[in-house]
Amino acid sequence: MTGFYNANLVALSLVVAIFASYTALELAGRVSHKQGRSSRIWLVCGAISMGTGVWSMHFVGMLAFHLPIALAYDVTLTALSMLIAIAASAAALYVVSRSVVTLRNLAGGATLMGIGIAAMHYLGMHAIRMSPPIEYKADLFIASIAIAIGASFAALWISFQLRDQSFGGAIFRKLGSAVLMGLAITGMHYTGMAAAEFAPGSICSVGPSSSMTSSALAMLIGITTIVILTITLGVSALDAHFAAKLTQALQTTNAQLSELALYDSLTGLPNRMLLDDRMGQAASSAERNGRSFALLFIDLDRFKPVNDSFGHAVGDALLKTVAQRLVSCVRAVDTVARIGGDEFVIVLSGIGEPKDAAMVSGKILDELSRPFFIESHEVDISGSIGISVYPQDAKDVKTLKAKADLAMYHAKQNGRNNYRFFAPGMSISNLA
């Protein structure tokens, strides 16, 4: 007995297959990005959506087939074939959602999924309940199963490759892959249909009380499935959008926390914590390259009277301007840090000899000696600078900073507005 196909329903089955494939690619990414209960929920929902799509394609394809006799489908077997499609989809999504996917995992998952799809197809064919039973050409039967496994392997591999790409970023690659997957799925189905042989005089033994018939039903199933898959894609896209927003918000928050932890809130300069890190880096670089670096410990002269006379707002504005002038005196590779109050520390990286630090210190004193105009007030201050040099004065950065601090006190004791290098005889006790 020879049958024929309704071309419109064949085309609809191909559209459904492509749509289901695209949805599968998108859901693979969503499942892999989730953890715990959320991942399990997406896996179940994804398996239902994907399995329903694949089953709908096969069912519409079978309804597209017409014999000279009336055909109907056993409800129980048809429903069971859908459950098999959902189970096969769940296995596929589970395989590609794992953090590490080996070739062996892909092959095992593809075999399981391919056999599941083939079982769905042939159980769906059995739901026609033909008498005598449908017989199958062995070569085409085997070929259909091989196509199912091969298509499943390609689908899993593509899903794994594209799963970490966003909904918008990989839309054309996913669409192209979905077309290939859809063609492979429909190829399996129609190869399996070609394998079927209906004996002359066969009849369909499904009674009307438990049957589903008509092309209108096929159209309804196809369109309903496309709507379900569209909704699923929409939810997936919204989930990806909100996940991206959340990631961006977390990155912004982390950047703000890092800013608060490592930078002075008033001047925007590195604080004590970041200064310690920069000193450690300078020491490591100097050790590797056989060079030196210098620490300049700066304390502003006559800063307290500014606060007392003009208020803290003017004092804060003055500190900001001082920070800008200090930064203008050094190179981009150097570090200017505020460690509290009116104290600043500068790391001069990779200096050739101590006189380089003296030259920068002289430039800084000139800058600090120029008048500051803050909120209509003319403010005059100066600075006292203590200098220590690595590794001559110390190889430990904590000790090096303490010695620069001590040299600064000696500079302040000796008339202010000058700089002093640390010398071995310096100590707190010999300050007048």
From TrEMBL:
**Per the entry, which co-factors are needed?**
Mg(2+)
Annotated MHYT domain ranges read 5-199
Give this protein's Gene Ontology molecular function annotations: catalytic activity
Top-rank taxon, per record: Bacteria
Report the residue ranges that make up the GGDEF domain in this protein. 291-424
Cited InterPro entries: DGC-Regulatory_Protein (IPR052163), GGDEF_dom (IPR000160), MHYT_dom (IPR005330), Nucleotide_cyclase (IPR029787), Rev_trsase/Diguanyl_cyclase (IPR043128)
TM region positions? 6-29, 41-65, 71-94, 106-128, 140-160, 172-196, 216-238
Recorded GO cellular component terms are: membrane
Q: Which UniProt keywords apply?
A: Membrane, Transmembrane, Transmembrane helix
What protein name applies here?
Answer: Diguanylate cyclase
Source organism (scientific name)? Stenotrophobium rhamnosiphilum
